[in-house]
Specification:
By secondary structure, this protein is mainly alpha-helical. It has helices at about 1-25, 30-45, 50-65, 70-105, 120-125; strands spanning about 130, 135-140, 145-150. The protein has 5 helices and 3 strands. The longest helix has about 35 residues, at about 70-105.
């Protein structure tokens, strides 16, 4: 009788572990899904849509079920694109300042400062948004974490 109780507990525990594994697998990406997202992200990157590509790579980083060379590659690309987007943001802030120095006013939109953006930052820059706020600040939406506001004066 004692052996039956131990066996029953063991099988109940085993079933619980199996169900837990099934539920966690359902919430993550299998290798086929990872490869599809990876392919789409690479296409977006080739098209110069860096923010969208980084978002795809980041999804693989967060939701991949298993470690794989695809996951490692996605993490590497996500970090590299993040660095490029940050650098383009810095160039954008500098370009706003240059525009102000040259024209004695701030740009009305990002198209006004395009000429000041270095070639290597143009793809990331094209994915930015620009909002002038009533309080004298502007917000540059980089596509990474939301907008970053700063004072024009």
């Amino acid at each position: 009788m004692k052996l039956v109780a131990i066996a029953s507990c063991f099988f109940a525990l085993l079933a619980g572990v199996f169900l837990l594994a099934l539920s966690s697998k359902r919430d993550c990406l299998g290798i086929d899904e990872v490869r599809k997202i990876l392919e789409k992200s690479e296409q977006l990157e080739e098209q110069g849509k860096l923010q969208a590509a980084r978002h795809g790579y980041k999804q693989i980083d967060i939701y991949a079920c298993e470690r794989s060379k695809e996951l490692s590659y996605a993490v590497e690309r996500s970090m590299a694109l993040g660095d490029r987007i940050h650098a383009a943001y810095d160039s954008t802030v500098e370009a706003i300042d240059l525009y102000h120095q040259k024209n004695d006013e701030y740009p009305s939109d990002l198209g006004d400062i395009r000429e000041f953006i270095p070639r290597e930052h143009v793809d990331a820059f094209k994915g930015f948004g620009f909002v002038k706020n009533d309080d004298g600040t502007v917000a540059i939406v980089t596509g990474l974490y939301g907008s970053v506001s700063f004072s024009l004066d």
